[in-house]
Amino acid sequence: MKKEEVKVEVEEGNVLKISGERCGEKEDKDGKWHRVERSSGKFLRRFRLPGEDFVKVDQVKATMENGVLTVTVPKEEVKKPEVKAIEISG
Fold first, then answer.
1. For residue 61, what are the contacts with CB-CB under 8 A and spacing of at least 6?
2. In this protein, which residues make up the domain named SHSP (predicted)?
3. Where are the domains of the chain?
4. Which residue of 27, 40, 60, 81 is most buried, as measured by CB atoms within 10 A?
5. Is the pTM of this model over 0.85?
6. Does domain 3-72 have CATH number 2.60.40.790?
7. Long-range own/partner contacts, residues 81-88 (CB < 8 A, 24 or more apart)
8. pLDDT tens digits along 50-77
9. Which H or E run includes 28?
10. Per residue in 16-44, pLDDT tens?
């Protein structure tokens, strides 16, 4: 597929939507046979992402190379709780 045939969106703040339409036709001819193969149709996939506390939905990136779609969803840095040592008396 070509990148122009695929659409990547973030809906409702945390739903990754990948959609598109495939239009293809392959034709083979030889002296005796004529064959046409068509593969076309629309597709739609939705993935629910973790909340904004876990991912940076405003920084989602998509790339397509050699027909392979790569979607990158950066994670938020998890703030680790501060740990204090407590002296044990006794």
1. 71, 72
2. 1-90
3. 3-72
4. 60
5. no
6. yes
7. none
8. 877 788 888 999 999 988 999 999 988 8
9. strand 15-29
10. 999 998 776 677 777 777 777 767 789 99
